[in-house]
Amino acid sequence: MAFTLPESKLALDIDFDPDHLRQRFEADKQARLRTDQLAQFQGLEDVLEVDDHDPFSEPITREPVTEELDTLVLGGGFGGLTAGAYLTQNGVENFRIVEYGGDFGGTWYWNRYPGVQCDIESHIYMPLLEETGYVPSQRYADGSEIFEHAQRIGRHYDLYGKTYFQTRATHARWDEQSQRWEVTTDRGDRFLARVLMRSNGALTKPQLPKVPGIGDFDGKIFHTSRWDYDYTGGSAAGDLENLRDKRVAVVGTGATGVQVVPYLGRDAKELVVVQRTPSVVQPRNNRKTDPQWAESLRPGWQYERHDNFNGIISGHEVDGNLVDDGWTHLFPQLTGQPLVDTPVGELPEADQALVAELADMKLLMGAHQRVDSIVTDPATADKLKPWFGYMCKRPCFNDEYLQTFNRPNVTLAASPTGIDGITSTGIVVAGTHYEVDCIVFATGFETGSGPAGIYGYDVIGRGGHSMQEYFSEGARTFHGFFTHGFPNFVELGMSQTAYYVNFVYMLDRKARHAARLVRHMLDNDLATFEPTAEAEADWVAEVRRSNEPREAYWGACTPGYYNGQGEVSKAVFRDVYNSSEIDFWNMIEEWWNSGRFEGLAFEPSRTAVAHS
Known about the structure:
This protein is of the alpha/beta class. Strand 7 and strand 8 form a beta hairpin. Helix 2 packs parallel to helix 17.
């Protein structure tokens, strides 16, 4: 249909009705909205009927320790690993890592379900490849290869001897007298650390929907992050031979569900896929790494690849497309530039916003066409089509998911409100009872309960102030690292730094910056660093301003973790700086290289003061 932009009067040729789509989006949103929003979920550890134990490591027995440290790092995923690596590179040796799992890897330690892979090209996702001398075996690495790389980093930087596994922080308090962080653990440990780095990320606490009757089920229930291969047989590569006489229900069709469904569909006698909200599913096109290409790589190749990828998704002009994947093709299309001949940036602001909306809709219609081209049953195909903005949920990439619904043993049970209940013999969805032997929850991780709820402990700063309370209206940081009133505390996770899709790149850059600050502190005999209240307030305001355009977008979205299940003030990305990653990290480099450390206040050690 012909469409004319209201201000510039430019004509566009589109094959859908924007008003009709807006109405469908709103109807879908209203059908899925729940009054309990984030409260509809509960932590896996809070559900006694579902096993939360670590199935991958034998329990570790050790005595409690008391240690004085330069730095304590909470978390042994890629954030903690890169922190340990960069601390080591900077000559900081007196540090420890505390990790809840039985080994390094974070999400890649826990997520070992069949089909688990990264959705970012592994050559830019897996950190410290050049430093460890490794090139991933395929474009999108399997979870086992990513987990092995986490172990490789741990060995390369001798981090195993500095890490306490199967240990969870329970309390963190700043002691003004000693100018140290006092951190206790569930093992009875007591650490006194000059610097506390937190990297036990937000996506680590498994969650389940609050479903009536979950304790009545007589069969097997587990969460994908606690996959029970003793029950299913097989491995992350598949061949789940013990399910061939089992009826299985999998709950959830986000990134995890999309990956695990093909394996369950292939091996289970019957599979019921419980879908509340469909996902956009585009081709993955995975392939093995070309050995000749790997041999041709020159020093600096990974960071060159990072810059090229980040430049494209941040809207910069770059030479070529080194990664050439779904993300680098998606982000330029989201601007709407392919729809108009005039540079989008030269259009009136209202037209720019409208062109971006139309581009988003066009992408969604393409996803619908892919569903129709693959799924043979029209009724099933219709249920698999998302009716919301393309970026309301993280797009998925998979070459087998949609095809699985053509199997005669696979049934799609779709309901906008999710599960009605669980009985002793099955699961009820949209009023229909499905008899099953096993229920697998692919329902993700907590994202919106605030720091104490997500991390399992509060951080108490100067004057007994609670970070949970201080962050009650959202994170308050300087550059996403430091918080006023919490000296020598560094947030390494997702908080008010620029980030679009490659989470590990952000972790790597944050760890690098934090480690060199610790080195600077030690070299200059400094006792504390802390942002000024003014610098923090200015940065928070800048982050809030950056997100104003996309808060309106999230407000129109169907409920999901991106928009706090409809409560936009709890949106997981609300406290992410919505700006070019290239520009953000260039700003951080300029800030560091100036040597003025504007906005960050240092206090000399008492020893230095005494000698002055």
